[in-house]
UniProtKB/TrEMBL annotation:
This is TRAP transporter substrate-binding protein. NCBIfam families: dctP (TIGR00787), TRAP_S1 (NF037995). One of its GO terms (biological process) is C4-dicarboxylate transport. It comes from Methyloraptor flagellatus. GO terms for cellular component: outer membrane-bounded periplasmic space. The keyword Transport applies. The keyword Methyltransferase does not apply.
Amino acid sequence: MRKIATLALACVFAGLAAGSAAAQDIVIKFSHVVAPDTPKGKGADRFKELAEKYTNGKVKVEVYPNSQLYKDKEELEALQLGAVQMLAPSLAKFGPLGAKEFELFDLPYIFPDTNALRAVTNGPIGKALFQKLETKGIVGLAYWDNGFKIMSANKAITKPEDLRGLKVRIQSSQVLAAQMKALGALPQVMAFSEVYQALQTGVVDGTENPPSNMYTQKMHEVQKYAALTNHGYLGYAVIVNKKFWDGLPPDTRAALEKAMKEATTYANTIAQAENDSALEAMKKSGKTTFYTLTDADRAAWMTALKPVHQEMASRIGKDLLEKIYATTKR
């Protein structure tokens, strides 16, 4: 907290500069917790390139990957205090902030495919969710994909019951906790930057991640088995400090919106390819054995996790879930 408060104070002058129409450089600190060679990391770098281009260098974007500035438990507070201007946290992060509706993205098997996902994020539901962040001093700019998650552990995983009794790392999300409990696993909330060491030392037995995160964080080196469950979606919301954003000159904000739109198209286009190549690289390494689910296996996983929807309906909102089901034709 002291670190965040100190940096927030240091950033006051930058915020004042951004809020004026003076022809001074505007600095955007864009912090995230994953590696530069992930879909999010590459998307952030593309935004930097385009933002500086479309503002003719008036805006300088400083990208800080791999939790260089803040861990995922700290970064939202840092944004609200103005210590950083832009983040791309996973959608699960907004539940603990009070916007529990965002936890709908954590529900297992909620999106049958990417087209169904897009219908939600690019439609009225996605816009309404972003509006809920504004009272918290946050403006939502875009939804970025990472991909669909697979389960990994240091024991073979083929069936849902194979996770029974295992300590599995999750993000802070009541939905994800309920998901693991439905599988008989013991959910362990932990910062993303701490997961590799926790897996290496046996503090946790397994985790869930899209292949690109698993590969770039070298988790395949400390996980013997994985199942291609594709049970849950991991995505991000690119967000900005509201006071900073509203204080920008209109022409600058329009240029940044253009840059973000193009960076979003790029990030979401490469996400699947990045996950495919990461999976192939991990298979070639021979350090993790991957199991591909049969149709019967998938049905078993879906049956085991179906009660999570009903259990979390009152938290996320029954009406919202019905809208999701209608939108995704689920």
